[in-house]
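Lab meeting, action items carried over

1. Structure of the two-component assembly. Owner: GW. Status: complete.
Input record:
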Amino acid sequence: MDRLIALSLVLCSCSLFVPAEREAGGQLVLHDPSAATVQLVGDWNRWGGLEDPGGVSDPRSGAMEFSGGYWRGAPPPDLERGRYRYAFLVNGGELRRDPANPETALYRGYTVSLLVID
Amino acid sequence: MSLLIAFILVMQSGEPPVTGPDMGILIRGTASADLREGLSTLSADTVAAFPEASWMDDMFELEVSARMDYPPDTQEVTIEPLTAGAFFRWPGSPWISAGVFRGIRDPFVYGVSEPVVEWNSTGSRDMNGASLEAGGVLGFSGWWNRYSDSLSWCGISSPWLGFAQVKWDRLGSDSSSSSLDNISGFADLRFVQPWLSFSSHGDTWSGEGELRGWKPVSNAFITLEIVPMASWASDTLGAGLGAYLKGRSRSFSGYFRAFAPDLDNAGDASLSAGFDMLSQAGVNWSMNAFLDEMESPGITASGMYRASPAGCGALVYAGEDTLAVTVSALYSPVRGVSSALSVYTDLDSDSPDPGCALEVHGAGSMGLAGIRVSWSRDITELRLGVSAWID
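Predicted assembly:
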């Protein structure tokens, strides 16, 4: 275990990685300056409309804010404790899992991220 | 008694809902063409509009939506009602309500690792229904939904008892005379949090659980959480272990998972591991390796330099008899416009059969439009799509 701690300290201190762009308030962040639009979709908003009877994504649902190369958004603040699948919907068509979250689940055959609120 | 009534009323008080009307229309259109035959083959696949309106105040909630299709072949507009709902809420309380609906409130129940009842798995969104919800006492609430005359969904939930959450769901079908019961929840025992989910379907019981909160490494840089997990179905017992690494001050995450769904048959076990990181140079590195049922290995690795105005990257997938490579170039000249050119092929195949796709997306305040042109040996296709919201 000591070796693991030492290894992690070495990895982090050698500036291989940029600082994590995560903020308070449960914000989720995606780095993609090249995207035209990014939406935060998940079980809490019925996947941005994909699970509504119309079955099409709503471009307003879960729209994320862009600044400094990062897209930022948050799940609803009144979300009950529990487990929720989510993903970033990039350019209205690509479901991309959260690279900062190592926990995943399956949605429609896609690997998406799992948010655990306890 | 008056104290009890006062306590119940205090527990029922909540934030008033957002009030007022809201209406608009979502317009969606797609078209495609076979470019080998020329642009004259361009035709609309879907032209549809989704008008919706809702109105809400302290006591009532109304909503209605529809789908209007304009099929290019018949050129006759068809209108299909999608959702409708009218709900009454006890004044000043979010806990007590009753209503009738169509197309909304379809059952969804999440377990521990996956949904017990997945979205739209019951077909209930095509049914009319009625609902009752009551609660507020000690944080408990109960609900009952009836869909036409064949399906019911009811349950009792306590979002937070101070140290635990408990939820019971029952899904009953008159036609099959069967029901699904699920009891799920977790407890916060300070150092660990057990999550459990038990389901009964007919005479069959199953369950799964995991123990969270064990973080042998937790410092200013990273957290490492070890999560033991177990599952049980009839006479089959499964077990596994997950290890999740998150960077706190650096953009890094990694994981390792091992799970054997049947401890008597180690050949069914699966292993997976991977990491994601954003380098100082702005490159997203990602690698995932897996071994399904101890005999089907695979690995994906990618490096994407996502930047504005230009970026590039590559993705490699190596699996059984496959070595697929995708190389992409990105260009985003102004904010809200994104384009990507991708070339992909299977290097391990006798005929590599490369393909190419160019995608351009533009986003504005009202919506999104996209063009995709794809070439391969058999097909050259153009696809267009527009999705816009008008208030």
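2. GW to write a short summary for the group page. Key points so far: The longest strand of chain A covers residues 82-90. The CA atoms of residues 40 and 80 of chain A lie 18 Å apart.
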